[in-house]
């Protein structure tokens, strides 16, 4: 294995985040264990000449919930703690952030130790007994009966085309890992306001990882989804629609297309799907009454 593929992580830093106000509020112990986004590889180009190119990272991260092995995720490692928290949230394995005592990522062992305040209350066996392998990049997995857990997103908010175009322009202007090396998906969360401010942007080897990371960041920052726009580079499958519904985000935007089941669930769950989205053009597949066009 080339030297350029050796360890690319710094010593673990641990900090504590208050989960509430006042001196008695519980605290969450978190690591900050971000890995380098890319490494380099020597290639031979079409003219037979050697050159160095950027290659996205991909690392196995095994999650242990109260010392019980849970799952292994393949990730860039850009926001591993947020990814873990978002995974626990979207899989309904943890009901509240205050249930967590620690989320510690250790790249020396490619593992994450998740400690809850009451281990007896968080046995994942029953929920994990029912598993669905999804069409996510690298194949995602959903545990439990997702549809039974979801309520439709109900909102009176609208999204103006001018705001959508501004949001797309902000995302396209980002200095992304994809522009540097390709081979990754990205997700972003923006406020549905005139200036479309960007809250989070996460890239990972699969779009399901990126959306879980944003879910974890929203959880930590106590952000709600009702006044947000969610953007992804990947196609809008049933999994992506269900995750948007779980976050309460009414507007799901993709530069790619969708699937039949994704569309069916969007109609049922109250999600406005906007596909093939570029600045100045897009296709609205569901709940189009929420899209407005302001007069110049």
Automatic annotation (TrEMBL):
Keyword Transferase part of the UniProt annotation: yes
Top-level taxon: Bacteria
One GO process term, biological-process aspect: Mo-molybdopterin cofactor biosynthetic process
UniProt key word Cytoplasm: yes
One Pfam family, short name: FdhD-NarQ
GO cellular component terms attached to this protein's record: cytoplasm
Active-site residues from the entry: 137 (cysteine persulfide intermediate)
Location within or outside the cell: Cytoplasm
Annotated GO MF terms: sulfur carrier activity; sulfurtransferase activity
Keyword list, A-Z: Cytoplasm, Molybdenum cofactor biosynthesis, Transferase
Described purpose of this protein according to its UniProt entry: Required for formate dehydrogenase (FDH) activity. Acts as a sulfur carrier protein that transfers sulfur from IscS to the molybdenum cofactor prior to its insertion into FDH.
HAMAP family: FdhD
The family this protein is said to belong to: Belongs to the FdhD family.
Protein's name according to its UniProt entry: Sulfur carrier protein FdhD
Species for this entry: Zoogloea oleivorans
GN (gene name): fdhD
């Amino acid at each position: 294995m080339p030297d350029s593929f050796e360890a690319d992580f710094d010593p673990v830093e641990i900090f504590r985040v208050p989960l509430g106000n006042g001196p008695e509020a519980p605290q969450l112990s978190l690591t900050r264990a971000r890995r380098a986004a890319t490494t380099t590889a020597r290639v031979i180009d079409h003219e037979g000449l050697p050159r160095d190119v950027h290659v996205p990272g991909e690392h196995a991260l095994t999650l242990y919930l109260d010392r019980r092995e849970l799952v292994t995720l393949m990730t860039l490692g850009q926001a591993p703690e947020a990814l873990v928290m978002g995974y626990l949230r979207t899989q309904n394995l943890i009901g509240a952030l205050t249930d967590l005592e620690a989320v510690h990522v250790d790249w020396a062992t490619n593992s994450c130790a998740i400690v809850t305040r009451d281990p007896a209350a968080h046995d994942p066996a029953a929920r994990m007994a029912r598993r669905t392998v999804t069409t996510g990049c690298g194949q995602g997995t959903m545990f439990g009966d997702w549809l039974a857990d979801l309520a439709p997103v109900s909102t009176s908010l609208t999204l103006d085309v001018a705001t959508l175009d501004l949001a797309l322009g902000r995302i396209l202007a980002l200095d992304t890992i994809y522009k540097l090396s390709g081979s990754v998906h990205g997700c972003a969360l923006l406020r549905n306001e005139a200036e479309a401010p960007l809250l989070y942007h996460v890239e990972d080897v699969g779009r399901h990882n990126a959306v879980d990371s944003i879910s974890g960041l929203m959880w930590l920052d106590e952000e709600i989804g009702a006044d947000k726009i969610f953007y992804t580079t990947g196609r809008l499958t049933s999994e992506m629609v269900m995750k948007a519904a779980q976050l309460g985000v009414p507007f799901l935007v993709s530069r790619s297309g969708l699937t039949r089941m994704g569309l069916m669930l969007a109609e049922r769950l109250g999600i406005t799907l906007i596909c093939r989205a570029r600045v100045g053009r897009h296709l609205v597949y569901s709940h189009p009454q929420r899209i407005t066009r302001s007069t110049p």
